[in-house]
Specification:
There is one protein chain. The chain is an all-alpha fold and 411 residues long. It folds into 2 domains: 73 residues, no CATH class; 263 residues, Farnesyl Diphosphate Synthase, CATH 1.10.600. Helix content is 64%, strand content 0%. Helix 7 packs parallel to helix 10. It is globular, with a radius of gyration of 24 Å. It starts with 31 loop residues before the first helix and ends in a 6-residue tail after the last helix. GO terms for molecular function: magnesium ion binding; terpene synthase activity.
Length: 411
């Protein structure tokens, strides 16, 4: 388990001298989604929908599901199977037919199929490789993962707030006090904290209590894993602050990644998502994940390097910043910034290869659901940092967010 960070007194609760925070644009959405209602259908359609009873609709859904199931089971030709499977996945209906889809993919895999249609060839490769079949060159959509999503969403919020406190707002002394409080994980630790941190800390504790209540009694022990993840994270944030205050640049990219792949927060988010998955992820698997296996090491390396390429120019322009992996690469290899980015992109490719290797070789301690979830996280990170740091400069993904949550899907 983690050892506690150094303690600081809070006598007198004096207001320390703060550095000017980094300038970030305000939230594009504000409180929009707190009162947002999805668009309604035209009145005529609305009236028609309301005339149909709920019982009838439930019955109709079951009928249609079985009709689709017959179509799925009746598929035998490879092109037909590929088209059907990809259509179900894109519509988000594949979770209803997992057994049938697995049987169909097994047929595709065991069929000696050659076709001059590049679309079908690429589709076959994509579907088989995505589902773990060994052919040369999904986060969780299933409804029974709802608790996992709730836990993950709240953990994302906490990590974002912690990162901003340590990186932008708090003084070094305040950051160390918060790190000690999170290690203690007890209401008595509020005496260590300045006033503006206390409400956040109490809500942090309350949220963990709510997780214990949401998990069934024989699974509430899993919250201890979340607490351990945060203890480690604040220790790593504290070490990163020391680098910043000492103006230290790690001499090699390996030295840099030993810490920075952990402070990107991806390790904690991936592990947090498994806490609410019930029996699909056993205690032994959670224990294994805390040892930081190769799958998670490759994943966090990929996210850290992608983040640094996208954000280093903006971050280095500020007065208070950490040395990025790009600076360490330049120092280690005597390279220019451009050459460093090229070299780091090659390291990202290597990390992807390592992740896929782990995905295609599941074990009892690292089942396929774990590897698949990590890969999906990596895809999200790749999208967020593909061109710019879209996580920070969020107007770059505004249209995508709107299409997901606001605009109706036309069928």
């Amino acid at each position: 388990m983690s050892s506690p960070p150094a303690a600081f007194s809070n006598e007198g609760d004096e207001q320390p001298q703060r550095r000017a925070p980094t300038s970030f644009h305000p939230s594009l959405w504000g409180n929009f989604f707190l009162s947002y209602q999805p668009p309604t259908a035209p009145k005529a359609i609305t009236f028609l929908l309301y005339t149909l009873s709920h019982a009838y609709m439930k019955e109709r859904v079951q009928v249609v599901k079985e009709e689709v199931r017959k179509v799925v089971k009746g598929s035998s030709e490879v092109p037909e199977i590929l088209d059907l499977v990809i259509t179900l996945q894109r519509l988000g209906l594949d979770s209803y037919y997992e057994t049938e889809i697995n049987d169909l993919l097994c047929i595709v895999y065991n069929t000696d199929y050659n076709d001059k249609d590049l679309h079908l060839v690429s589709l076959r490769f994509y579907l088989l490789r995505k589902n773990g079949y060994d052919v040369s060159s999904g986060a969780c959509s299933e409804p029974h993962y709802s608790l996992s999503r709730i836990i993950l969403t709240k953990m994302i919020a906490f990590i974002i707030i912690l990162d901003d406190i340590f990186d932008t707002y708090a003084t070094t002394e305040e950051s160390m006090m918060l790190a000690k409080a999170i290690y203690m994980c007890n209401e008595t630790a509020t005496v260590l904290l300045p006033k503006y941190m206390k409400d956040f800390y109490l809500y942090y504790l309350k949220t963990f209590d709510s997780f214990e209540e949401a998990l069934c009694p024989n699974k509430s022990y899993r919250v201890c894993y979340l607490k351990e993840l945060f203890k480690r994270l604040v220790q790593e944030f504290s070490q990163e602050i020391k680098w910043r205050d000492d103006h230290y640049i790690p001499k090699t990219i390996e030295e840099h990644l030993e810490l920075s792949r952990k402070t990107v927060g991806a390790f904690e988010l991936a592990c947090a998502s498994f806490v609410g998955m019930g029996d699909l992820v056993a205690k032994e698997t959670l224990d294994c994940l805390l040892t930081y296996p190769e799958l998670l090491k490759s994943f966090t390396t990929c996210v850290r390097l992608s983040n640094d390429i996208a954000s280093t120019k903006r971050e280095q322009a500020g007065d208070h910043h950490h040395a990025s992996t790009i600076q360490s690469y330049m120092l280690q290899h005597g390279a220019t910034a451009h050459e460093a980015c090229v070299g780091i992109k090659e390291l990202i490719e290597d990390s992807w290869k390592d992740m896929m290797k782990e995905y295609l070789t599941p074990t009892d301690l690292q089942p396929k659901i774990v590897a698949r979830t990590v890969i999906d996280f990596a895809r999200t990170g790749d999208y967020m940092y593909k061109q710019v740091d879209s996580f920070t400069i969020s107007h770059t993904i505004k249209d995508m967010i709107a299409s997901l949550y606001m605009e109706p899907y036309n069928i």
